[in-house]
Amino acid sequence: IVRRTSVTGGRIRGVMVAEGGRGVFDQCKVSGSRGPGVELCRGSSATFTKCSVTNNRVGVTASTGARGSFQEGDLRGNTESAWKLSPANVCSTVSATRVDFLCRRWLGAR
Questions:
Q1: How confident is the model over 49-106, as pLDDT tens digits?
Q2: Do residues 32 and 53 touch, judged by C-beta distance below 8 A?
Q3: Residue 27 and residue 70: Cα distance in Å, rounded?
Q4: Residue 89: what pLDDT?
Q5: 50: exposed, middle or buried (C-beta count within 10 Å: 0-12, 13-18, 19+)?
Q6: Cβ pair 62, 53 in contact under 8 A
Q7: Which one of 8, 55, 78, 92 is at 20 to 30 Å from 16 when CA atoms are compared?
Q8: Whose CA is closest to 67, among 33, 31, 104, 37?
Q9: CA distances from 20 to 43, 46, 76, 107 (A)
Q10: 66, 103 Cβ separation under 8 angstroms
Q11: pLDDT at residue 109 in the model
Q12: Residues 6+ apart with CB under 8 A from 64
């Protein structure tokens, strides 16, 4: 569990959950990355609660088989988009304060 941690100015990305990795992030701030603020690699799973992922190139990217849950967070102000997920992704829960997803197939960056 990572709590109340700030990651700023990443050259490639802010936070990466490695292939098959797991993570729980609570009240963290990720900003100023030249790439994604959060990168979820193949088969990884992570939960982000009350986290701010702002002012990066992209807020969150996910590879094939990645699972993520973002609850009560802030994904505003990322220059390209808040999410970079393929149309093949399935969003199981979407509300004003929570998004859960499973990335079934990654189409790659455009």
A1: 999 999 999 999 988 788 888 888 899 999 998 888 755 555 545 555 666 566 554 4
A2: no
A3: 11
A4: 52
A5: middle
A6: no
A7: 92
A8: 104
A9: 5, 10, 27, 19
A10: yes
A11: 39
A12: 42, 43, 103, 104, 105, 106
| pLDDT, tens digit, 9 for 90 and up, residues 15-47 | 999 999 999 999 999 999 999 999 998 889 999
Q: Tokens in use for 11?
A: 């050259």
Residue 72: the pLDDT is 87
Q: Bin 109: left if φ > 0, else alpha if -120 < ψ < 50, else beta.
A: beta
* DSSP bridge pairs for 30: 7, 53
Give pTM, 2 decimals: 0.83
C-alpha closest to that of 106 among 87, 82, 79, 83:
87
